[in-house]
Amino acid sequence: MTTPAADGTGGPGDSATPPAGKGVVAAPGPAAPQTPDSAGPRRFKSVTGTRRTVAFFFLLPALILLGALVVYPIGYSVVRSFFNASGNSFIGFDNYETLFTRADTKAAINNNVWWVVLAPTVATALGLIFAVLTERIRWGTAFKLIVFMPMAISMLAAGIIFRLVYDQDPEKGAVNAAWVSIHDTFADSSTFPKAHPRPNGTVSGKTGGPYLTKEPVKAGTNVMLPLVGVAADQMPDGAKPAKQPTADPSKITGTVWQDFTLGKGAGGVNKVDATELGYPGMRIEAVKDGKVVASTTAAADGTFTLPASADGSELRLPAANFKEPYNGVEWLGDKKFFTIHLGGFDLYLNIVTTSIMVAYIWMWAGFAMVLIGAGLASIPRELLEAARVDGASEWQVFRRVTVPLLAPVLAVVLVTLMINVLKIFDLVYIIAPGSSQDDANVLALQLYLSAFNEGDVGLASAIAVLLLLLVIPVIWFNLRRLRQEERR
Known about the structure:
Shape: elongated
Mean pLDDT: 85
CATH class of the largest domain: Mainly Alpha
Strand content: 5-15%
CATH topology of the largest domain: MetI-like fold
CATH superfamily of the largest domain: MetI-like
CATH architecture of the largest domain: Orthogonal Bundle
């Protein structure tokens, strides 16, 4: 028997390896690391540890919906655009030829060009201005709330609002009411736009004036100038019952009045009746040899007096007496601002399209302001203060520091609005009246009209494909910009 040593190790007869034939089992040591070759093939797992097959089954419902709601409609529209209206015969690119040659579709393309160029640019610019200015005013938050509030209104409601705002009647349309008030401040309108001579009266002339006496007048005689055509409720408040003045041998006197009375007891033609009213403020001119030798205005009872120098002249009622009142601007009309000739295609901008763009900008300027304001809040203030310390003016700080730093945010807002205006439909459909809807037409509206009003699904599909092709470059630009930002 061997005695163990004091240090706990085996005695002199011990050895590191047990002798053969002994029933001693060595203690297990640490396992040797396995190489990929020795471990055998391993199945691929994602970063989260999910197998590819499991991930595919989780994504399958979304892929099915994407294919049913996006891929299939796009593919069907492309195929359908090569067939006729009924879909029975293949016509090749005829629908696309019609798209670029027919008057209504060409107008839609023309208007879409201006929508893409002007509306997003103006909305983004206003959003930038509002975002910068609201940082410097005391009630900035309240101002932002007011500007952003139109975003809470639906396009349908906004269309109805602006249809009323642009109404031609100044008593209904807010814009024309303000416009007419400004105009009338500098240019007076006539009180008697509908007045005209009686067929058998003493004056005659073309409709709207001027009106002249049929014979020269003489001093010492009363000249009667009967007119009709003004409704009783439209007579001036200061009008008094007409009367015939006393003749003056050295002057020319007379009366201009409304020679019409309803009911029994009315006076005769060219005679003043007690119930008939004078035309206060009516201008009368004495014309001799084509020159005005004297002039005056009628009193509240329609009477007037001219000096002896008017003897032998013709009395004239100038056209200014009968000028139609200013009725404002036809904001929803087809008037064109300008036209650019590009080969065989005329690019023009009309007033109805511009008016509808204003409604769109009113809604989306708040959206641009909020996004740009968020980007503005992330700009280090040290950069702005450093520029001011270096002597830069506020305009230089804005142009050379703020705008370049906001360029990524401005690009996001601009691209988003460009995609949005390509789909504009409801504002145009609601605001533009039937008489000028063709002039305000856009591609999305024309797609609807072609498919449902005309029943030409082939042409509508061609318009849908064109819209898709117009959106693709904008989306590509946005993706390219996002990848560049990720690399930074």
